[in-house]
Amino acid sequence: MQRWKILLVAAFALVVAACSSGGGATTTAGGGGTPTTGGGEMAEPLTVAFVYVAPIGDLGWTWAHDQGRLAIEEEFGDAVETLYIESVPEGPDAERVIRDFAQKGADLIITTSFGYMDPTIAVASEFPDVEFVHISGYKTADNVATVFGRMYQPRYLSGLVAGKATKTNTIGYVAAFPIPEVIRGINAFTLGVREVNPDAVVKVVWTNTWFGPPEEKEAAEALLAAGADVIAQHQDTTEPQKAAADAGGFSIGYDSDMRAFVGDTVLTSPIWNWGVKYVDIVRQMLDGTYEGGYQYWGSMADGIVDLAPLSPLVDADTAALVDEKKAAIVAGDLDVFCGPIVGANGNTVVEAGKCLTDGEMLSMDWFVDGVEGEAPAEAPTGLGE
Amino acid sequence: MTAPFRIGLEKRLDPPPYVRWLVPILSILVALGFGAVVIGLAGADPIEAYLQILAGAFGSPAAWLDGEFYAVSETIVRTIPLILTGLAVAVAFRMRFWNIGAEGQLVVGGVFVAWVALFLPELLPGIPQTPWVYLPLMAVAAILGGALWALVPAVLKAALEVDEIITTIMLNFVAILTYQYLFTGPWKDPEGQGFPGSAPFPEFAWLPRIGGRVTLGLFLALAAAVVVWLVFDHTKLGYEIALTGENPEAARYAGVRRAGIILAVMLLSGGLAGLAGFTETAGISHRLQQGLAIGNGFTGIIVAWVAKLRPGWIVLVAFLLSALFVGGDQLQISMGLPASIGAFFQGMILLFVLGGDVFSRYRLRIARRAHVISAEG
C-alpha cells in the first residue's frame, strides 16, 4: 500500500518534471531566435479572446459569436490574433478560464454569456490594463463594458410571421431561463403575434438551460403535442426547429439564420450580427481611441440585431407587412413596447401614448396578454412614460 | 475449426502485490496512448498536447520560480469538492448502498448554507456577525441539509426496500430544480434587476482564502478524509459498514441492525456531500447562483470508484482528475482542439482504469482446449 503511493507520486513527479523541462526548452528556443530579427517594425498583434458557453457547433448563440470572431480576423488579418474556449460552464468556474486568458496576455476578453458577469468583474479588477466586454449583463467597471442588442425588435417582427402562419392558433415557445432578456423576447414576439392574429396564444416552456439539445427537443415536442403548429425559441441550438420540422410544423429560429441549417420550415429567425460591434471595438483599440466601461444596447438600425430573410413559404402579404414594420423600426418611427399593452393578468401595464423605458424593459419579469406560462411576477400597472 | 488454444480469464486467488500498482499505471499509459491517437487524428501534436495539460494544471518551473502558483492553485480549488463528494460516495458504496445522489445532496447543502448566510443575520440579529460564529453555523447547516436529503432514500430503503439507485437519482433533479427555483424566484437578489441569482452573502460568511481561490475548505476536505479513514478502519461502525456491504447475511448473524446501518451510512454520506456545497458557496461563489450543480456529485462517483473507496486514494484521485479537468482547458485555449476532447480524455482514462481492474483480480490464461474444458467441468 505504502509503496503503491510512493511509486505513484514518484511517477507523477517525474512526468511533471519532464513536462516542465520540455516547456522551458521551447521558451529558450524562442528567446534564442528573436535577437536576430530586425526589431520593432512588426507590431505585436492585438490578442482578442472569447469565452463561449456552448460549442461553436450549436449553430446558434455561440456560432453567431464565433462568426463575429471570424469577422474580426477577416477585417484585420495579421493585426489581430483571436483565441477562444467553448463550453465553459457559467458561474464561478468561468473565473479560472477568464483569468487564464488575461495571464496569457489577451488585450481584449469578450465573455459571451450572462453567467460570466461576476467572474468577469472579478478578473477585470486584477487586470486593469486588459479590456473586457461582457455580453448581456448589467455590471460595468473602468475596463468592463457591456454589449447587447435590442433583440425585441426582430422578435416582434418574427411574431408577425408566426401569427400569420399558425392554423391552430397555438404557438409554442421553448425558452431557457425566466430572466428579463428572455421574457422581453417572449413579450415582443407575442405582441407581434397578437397584432395579426388576436386569437392566437403563445405557450411557453422553460428548459432551465441555454444549451441542452435533448431538453430543447423534448420541450418542442411537448408543445407540438399540445397543439402548437409553430415553434419559436430562445435557446442555443437548432433542436426545436428540427422537432417542429419533423412534426410537419413551422418554426421561428433564433441567433443565426437557422433556415440555412434546417430548411424552409424555419420561416425566419431574429439574428445577431456580433461582428458589427466586435469589429468596431477592435478598430478603436487598434487606433488607440477605445474607452471601456460603457453600456451598449444596439438596435436594428445599428445592425447588431436583424431579421433573417423570410422563407419562400411565407406569403407575399406577410412579407410586405414585415418589410413595412421593419422599415418603421429602423427609421425610429415604431417602438415595440408602446401602449396600450395589457398584461397576462388583464392589468393595463402601459397606457396608450406611453412607452416602456429602457430600465423597465431591462428588468421585465411579467408576461403580456396572450402568453401562457409561468412568469416570475404578475404584470404591474402604470409603467411607461 | 476451433483453435487449439483458448485465451481465458482466471481468478487470481492470491494477487501478487505488484499487481495493485502496476495495473492502474499500465491502464493510464494505455489510455494516454489511445488519447494520443485521437489528438493526432484531430490534427494536433499529442506530446505538445500532454505538455499543455500538465502546464495548465500545475504551471511551469519558470512560473514557480516567480512565485506564481496560479495553475496548481486552481487545480486544488477544483479538488476540494471532489474529495468531499468522493468520500460521500465511498461511504455509501462501501456498504453497497448505491448513492447516486451526491449531486443533489451537495446542492441542498449549498441551499442550507445560503439560507443561513442570507436570512439568519436578519432573523436573529443577536448572533455575533463574525466568521468565527457564522462559518461553523453554515458548515453545520450544509451537513444537515445534505444528510436530510440523503435520509429520504435511506428511510425508503430501510423501511420499504425501495431501490436506492432510483430514489437517489431522482432526488437530484428535485434538489436542482428547487435550488434553481429559489435563486430565480423567492431568493432572487432584489438589486439584481430581475436576473437570476441570490444576493451576495455578507462578508463575514465568506470562507477565508489562503492563496489564489483556494480556501480553508482544503483543510476541511482533508480532515474529512481523515475522519472517514478513522471510521472505516478504526470503528465498529466502519466494520459493520464493510461487513454489510460484503455479506449482508453474515452481518445479520453478527447482530448488525441493517436499518440502523443504512441510516447511519446515508447521514454520513449526505453530510459529506452537503459539506461540498458549503465549500463551493461560502468559498467560491459567495451567493446562490447557476453553477453549483456542475457535476461534482457525479464525478465523485468516479473518484470513489477509481480510488477503490479508500479515503487516502480519494484525495489523490480527486487531485489528478481535477488536474485533467483544469489542464484540459488548455487543449482548447492553446491548441484549438474542441472542448469535447477534454471530456473524452477523462472518459478514456476512467474506462481503462476501471476496465484494467479486471486484470488485478483475474489473470490472462492461455490454455489448451482440453484443459479449459476440464477446468470448466
Compact summary:
The complex is a heterodimer of chains A (385) and B (377). Chain A has 385 residues and is α/β, with parallel strands linked by helices. Chain A has helices spanning 2-33, 61-76, 93-103, 117-126, 152-165, 180-196, 213-225, 239-246, 259-262, 274-287, 316-331, 358-362; strands at 46-51, 80-85, 108-111, 131-135, 144-149, 170-175, 201-206, 230-234, 250-252, 266-268, 270-272, 295-298, 305-307, 341-342, 348-350, 371-372.
Written description of the protein model:
The complex is a heterodimer of chains A (385) and B (377). Chain A has 385 residues and is an alpha/beta fold. Helices cover 42% and strands 17% of the residues of chain A. Chain A contains 12 helices and 16 strands. A 6-stranded parallel beta sheet of chain A has the order 2-1-3-4-5-12, sandwiched between helices. Chain A has a 6-stranded parallel beta sheet with strand order 10-9-8-6-7-16, sandwiched between helices. Chain A has a two-stranded antiparallel ribbon with strand order 11-13. With 377 residues, chain B is mainly alpha-helical. In chain B, the strands form 2 sheets. A two-stranded antiparallel ribbon of chain B has the order 1-4. In chain B, β2 and β3 form a beta hairpin. The longest helix of chain B has 30 residues, at 131-160. The radius of gyration of chain B is 23 Å and the shape is globular. The two termini of chain B are 22 Å apart. The model of chain B is unreliable at 372-377 (pLDDT under 50). The chains are: A alpha/beta (385), B mainly alpha (377). Chains A and B meet through α1, β2 and α3 of A and α1, α2, α4, α7 and α11 of B.
How are the SSEs placed, and which strands pair?
The complex is a heterodimer of chains A (385) and B (377).
Chain A: H1 2-33, E1 46-51, H2 61-76, E2 80-85, H3 93-103, E3 108-111, H4 117-126, E4 131-135, E5 144-149, H5 152-165, E6 170-175, H6 180-196, E7 201-206, H7 213-225, E8 230-234, H8 239-246, E9 250-252, H9 259-262, E10 266-268, E11 270-272, H10 274-287, E12 295-298, E13 305-307, H11 316-331, E14 341-342, E15 348-350, H12 358-362, E16 371-372
Helix pairs in contact in A: 2-10, 3-4, 5-6, 5-11, 7-8
Chain B: E1 5-11, H1 18-41, H2 46-58, H3 61-65, H4 70-94, H5 102-123, H6 131-160, H7 164-184, E2 209-211, E3 214-215, H8 217-234, H9 236-246, H10 248-253, H11 258-285, H12 296-306, H13 311-333, H14 340-361, E4 362-368, H15 369-376
Antiparallel strand pairs in B: 1-4, 2-3
Helix pairs in contact in B: 1-2, 1-14, 2-4, 2-13, 4-8, 4-11, 4-12, 4-13, 5-6, 5-7, 5-11, 5-12, 6-7, 6-11, 8-9, 8-13, 12-13, 13-14
